[in-house]
Amino acid sequence: MVVKSGIVLVGVAAVAVLMAACAGEGEGAGTERADVRRGGASEVTPAEALAAAAPPRVTIHNLVDVIPGLTSGTMPEGEGDFAELAQRGFATIISVDGATPDVETAAKHGLRYVHLPIGYHGMEKARQLELARAVRDLPGPIYLHCHHGKHRGPAAAVTAAVLLDELTPEEAVAVMKKAGTSPHYKGLYACAERAAPVSMGVIDSADGSFPAVAPMPGFISAMAETQLIYERLKEIEAAGWTVPAHHPDLVPVAEAGRMENLVRAMLDDPETRKHPEDFAAMMVASLEAAQAMEDALAAQAPRDELSARLKALDVSCKDCHLAYRDNRPMGE
User: Fold this and answer.
1) What is the pLDDT of residues 115-174, one digit of tens each?
2) Which pairs with CB-CB distance under 8 Å and at least 24 residues apart come from 225-231?
C-alpha cells in the first residue's frame, strides 16, 4: 500500500488579460494576431508579457484524503493543475468521469492516467473490483477524480477502500458526506453501504489492463462534454457574460453553439430511442433551451436575460438527470 500524501490544496489565482476572439468557421476556430514589427523586432504587448509571467492557474479543489495514498478531488485541467499534482507527489491519476482524460499533459508532468468511468447511478461489481485493483497495484500516491470531486469520485474511492478492507462501510459513507456527495445519488451511496472486504484472489481476477482512455459510447461522451460546456458558460456568466480573463480562448456564443450541437446529436443518437418517449421530450426541451441560450448570446441580450436562459438550460438538464441518470437501477 502506498504512503499517504497529506494534501492541503491552496488555489493559485492566475492573472490573465481579456482578449477579443475573432470569428471563425468550425468548432476549433482560433484567434490570430498579426505581429507588429518596428525596426525588424516583434513587439510584445504588455498584456502578453503579463500573461507570460503569470503562474499557471490551479483549479483543482475538493480534495479529500480517503485512505493513506488515495485522495479524491476535482478533474485537473491545464498545465497548472497537473504541475500541482506532480509537485504534491502524486504518481497516478484515476478518472471515473466520462470525459476523455488529458493524458498528454499528465504525461508531461510524469503522471500516469487511468480511465475507469462510472455513472451517477453507481458501479457494477466488475468496475468496483477494477478500481480496487487499481488502487492496490498502481504506483502511488493516487489522485482519483470525477468532474466536481463531490459525487462519483469519492464514491469510487471509498468503495475500493472497503473492498481492500481499508474502510468500513460506515466510514466510507462518512467520507462521502465529508466530500459533499449529495444524498440525491442513492446508487452511489448504496455502493459504499453494500461493499464488503474481498480476498486478494478476487481482486486479482479483475481486469488489470488499466486503459489511459476507456472506449466510450458516443452518447456518454456527449453527455460528459455538455457538462464541461455548462461549467464554461458559468465561468462566462461570472465574468459578466464576457470572455473570462483566465480563459481567453472561450467565445461565449461559440460555447452555446457547441452545447446545442451536442444536444442535437444526442437527440438523434440511437441510445435516445432506447428510452421512453418522455426521455426524447426532455431532450427536445434541452435542445430548445440551448438554442435560446445561443440566440440570446448572439443578440447580445441583457445580462439578466442571459442568466435566465442559462438557468432554464440547467433546469432542463437536471429534470432529465433526475429521471434517467441519477437513479438508474444499479447493475451487479
Assistant:
1) 999 887 789 999 999 999 999 999 999 999 998 899 999 999 999 999 999 999 999 999
2) 225/99, 225/258, 225/262, 226/259, 226/262, 226/263, 226/266, 226/317, 227/99, 227/147, 228/99, 228/147, 229/255, 229/258, 229/259, 229/262, 230/259, 230/313, 230/314, 230/317, 231/147
Q: Give Rg (Cα) of the chain.
A: 21
C-alpha grid cell for residue 272?
Answer: 435516445
Global pTM value:
0.61
List alpha helices for the chain, DSSP H.
46-53, 78-87, 103-108, 125-137, 152-163, 169-179, 186-194, 200-204, 218-238, 252-268, 277-298, 303-320
Angle, CA of 295, 300 and 304, to the nearest 5°: 95
Whether residue 265 has pLDDT greater than 90: no
